[in-house]
């Protein structure tokens, strides 16, 4: 959980009001919070003292707690008083409709929930190619329909999900994998252990992600391994989602053009997503995950943050996801919960 400090828009009493409106004691709320967190793969302890501290403003809930509260109370962060709403959240009901039990219309209800979730997190001000972005969203929804109805396999797609450290790119890529059934590959999961051993063998720091040794000698190999693994899937007709920063790659139009042409020759479409986030939220998540590879970033935060462009997405992007203040990941959580209700 985060230490207490001034948070714009934080209204702790709203959390208590939601709990009481659900008729829950602190103990009962803690039990239910642990249950919903376990389903969502979130790390929360949810004991009596922690919930009491959140509701009384003594402790600001960390990112996994906030996500779990949103799922438990079927509400968004602004509605629970964690923060002020983004412009796109200021009007109307902020929660997604949850489909009822399985019925003849359940598949289309689920498709509608996915469509609304993707539309709500799309940052229209950053779209470089709206047509391709809309086509990608439609394809994700159709992938769900195909899985639900045992339909035919569609066109093979390679999706690159990029963003800065702590932006939520991996979580969003995993969400796309959850609902589409496409293969999901994360660069860190695929290469981190090899990267650490390689850096040690070269006389470097295993957690180095900023020196010339890493950037010039190791980083290119990481991306080569990631793309090779993706190509194995694509050659089998398996649509694949890749999660990695892709910062240099997406700002290099020649790199993206070469990749697109190679894939097109194999009948594979390429779609690029950029997960946009604010600096403070990225730092909060980096601190929360407490990964050794982030030590330099946190120790030199001002220097690191000065290199980030949080105002615009790279030029090759088809769809920008607005995850400022964690808004997109919260919607993704609610969409997952909606789908669980359909297939339960």
Walk me through the structure.
With 344 residues, the protein is an alpha/beta fold. The chain has 2 domains: 77 residues; 205 residues, Rossmann fold (3-Layer(aba) Sandwich). A 5-stranded parallel β-sheet has the order 2-3-1-4-5, with helices on both faces. Helix 5 runs antiparallel to helix 15, helix 7 runs parallel beside helix 15 and helix 8 crosses helix 9. It is globular.
Topology:
Blueprint (H helix, E strand, L loop, with lengths): L12 H9 L4 H15 L7 H8 L7 H11 L32 H16 L8 H20 L7 E6 L6 H12 L2 E4 H15 L10 H24 L4 E4 L3 H4 L2 H13 L3 E8 L2 H11 L5 H5 L1 H5 L13 E4 L4 H17 L1
Parallel strand pairs: 1-3, 1-4, 2-3, 4-5
How many β-strand runs? 5
- CATH names the topology of the largest domain as Rossmann fold
- Total helical elements: 15
Helix-residue proportion: 40-55%
Q: Oligomeric form of this entry?
A: single chain
Which CATH architecture of the largest domain is right? Answer: 3-Layer(aba) Sandwich
**What portion of residues belong to β-strands?**
5-15%
Keywords: Kinase, Transferase
GO molecular function, one term: kinase activity
Organism: Actinomadura hallensis
Protein name: Putative kinase
Describe, in short, the structure shown.
The protein has 344 residues and is an alpha/beta fold.
Highlighted features:
five-stranded parallel sheet; 8% strand; alpha/beta; Putative kinase; P-loop_NTPase; Rossmann fold; 15 helices; kinase activity; 344 residues
């Amino acid at each position: 959980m985060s230490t207490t400090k001034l948070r714009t828009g934080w209204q702790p009493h709203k959390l208590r009001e939601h709990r009481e409106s659900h008729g829950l004691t602190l103990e009962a709320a803690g039990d239910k919070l642990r249950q919903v967190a376990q389903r969502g793969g979130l790390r929360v302890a949810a004991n009596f003292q922690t919930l009491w501290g959140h509701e009384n403003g003594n402790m600001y809930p960390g990112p996994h707690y906030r996500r779990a509260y949103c799922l438990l109370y079927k509400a968004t962060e602004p509605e629970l008083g964690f923060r002020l709403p983004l412009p796109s959240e200021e009007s109307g009901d902020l929660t997604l409709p949850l489909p009822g039990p399985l019925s003849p219309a359940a598949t289309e209800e689920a498709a509608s929930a996915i469509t609304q979730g993707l539309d709500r997190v799309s940052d229209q001000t950053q779209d470089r190619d709206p047509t391709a972005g809309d086509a990608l969203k439609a394809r994700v929804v159709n992938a769900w329909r195909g899985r639900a109805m045992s339909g035919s396999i569609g066109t093979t797609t390679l999706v690159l999900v990029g963003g800065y450290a702590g932006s939520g790119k991996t979580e969003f890529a995993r969400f796309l994998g959850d609902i589409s059934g496409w293969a999901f590959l994360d660069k860190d999961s695929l290469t981190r252990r090899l990267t650490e051993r390689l850096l040690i063998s070269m006389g470097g720091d295993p957690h180095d992600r900023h020196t010339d040794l890493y950037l010039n000698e190791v980083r290119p190999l990481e991306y080569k391994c990631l793309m090779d693994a993706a190509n194995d899937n694509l050659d089998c007709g398996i649509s694949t989602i890749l999660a990695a920063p892709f910062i240099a790659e997406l700002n290099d139009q020649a790199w993206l053009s070469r990749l697109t042409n190679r894939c097109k020759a194999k009948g594979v479409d390429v779609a690029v997503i950029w997960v946009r986030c604010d600096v403070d939220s990225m730092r909060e998540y980096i601190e929360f995950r407490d990964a050794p590879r982030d030590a330099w970033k946190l120790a030199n935060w001002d220097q690191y943050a000065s290199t980030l462009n949080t105002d615009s997405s790279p030029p090759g992007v088809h769809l920008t996801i607005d995850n400022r203040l964690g808004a997109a990941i919260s919607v993704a959580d609610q969409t997952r919960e909606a789908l669980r209700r359909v297939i339960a």
